[in-house]
Amino acid sequence: VVLQGREEQPSLTPRKGLVEYFKSPLATPENDHKIYADCTFAIFCKTGPENFCAISHIPVLGLNYVEISCITPNGRCRYFPKHLWDRREKKYISWRDLIKRPCFYDMGAVAFEEVDYVDLDEKEMLQALKEFLPMLSLPFASWMQYSPLQQEFKASLHPLHLDAYHTLDVPCDTYLNSDKFC
Prior knowledge:
Strand order of the largest sheet: 1-2-3-7
Helix content: 25-40%
Largest sheet: 4 strands, parallel
Number of strands: 7
């Protein structure tokens, strides 16, 4: 496991197989490329290094994604966005509701509604990983064989949903079927 990041990345307890690359004097653009040259897949929050995966055709599991109106297209990506909590209504916003609301277009410091972003819990991350791992052995075309919920998600989008509409990447079923939306 290679932790990319910046200086503000907190250190983790040292363990076998964990490389805190962000601290290394070897952290260079050339070595960034070498990391991705041999990797099988990557797990990211929404961050710049996922561009290496898009360029190198490396599958990505996106966890705690935000700003899903703006997605780096990969073709072999499944993501599980952070949950959005509506402060006014005091409930989680389902994906079906989210795509109809202004907060879908929140970008950086630009917020259109009073919502809180809620990190995934460990159970959700593990469920997303279990959904993602069997896909790694599939050919590229199979990644577009969406589940019924993913098909519903894609069919619900309009070109004004920007990247979410145009990209082949879709949310994990574990997100689309989250019990937090009940």
